Amino acid sequence: MDSSILNRIMKYCAGSEKSTHDVLSRLQAWDVPPEDYDDIIKKLKDEKFLDDTRFARSYVSDKWNLDRWGKIKIENALRQKDIDEATIHPALKIIDDQEYKKELHHILHKKWKEVKSPNDDDDAKRILMYALSRGFEEDLVMEWIEKQSFNID
Questions:
Q1: pTM (2 decimals)?
Q2: I need a labelling partner for 78 at 20 to 30 A (CA). Which of 61, 88, 95, 108 fits?
Q3: DSSP labels for 68-120?
Q4: pLDDT on residue 152
Q5: What are the boundaries of each domain within the chain?
């Protein structure tokens, strides 16, 4: 294992939380021989530069607090980074359910004001599609839509 590569990847990991998937992608981009991957990953984990649980918590926090992504979108993004289910679900629990619903209602109300059309049913469909694209659960969105007296057929 080349120490200059190890130092370079440690610096990469020190800049912000990275997943094992991110590190492997970077090593591939740097044309590091695949036979060195396991040793590098082990060293990074031993030295606390790399921790997928810590990464998942940080990722959930950032995507919720900064981008206001729904749980489904966050979960899918973590899966794309090869984070396992046993790590994803506890990380998602850092999002307070009350705050989550309150923010969802705020987002839906704001979108409802933007999509005003002559047909409330069309508005409801647009709001639903918007919320789903942001990663929110359909049942929570439908609950809000029904409280607004919309209908979606």
A1: 0.89
A2: 108
A3: ---HHHHHHHHHHTT--HHHHHHHHTTS-HHHHHHHHHHHHHHHHHHT--S-H
A4: 57
A5: 3-92, 97-147
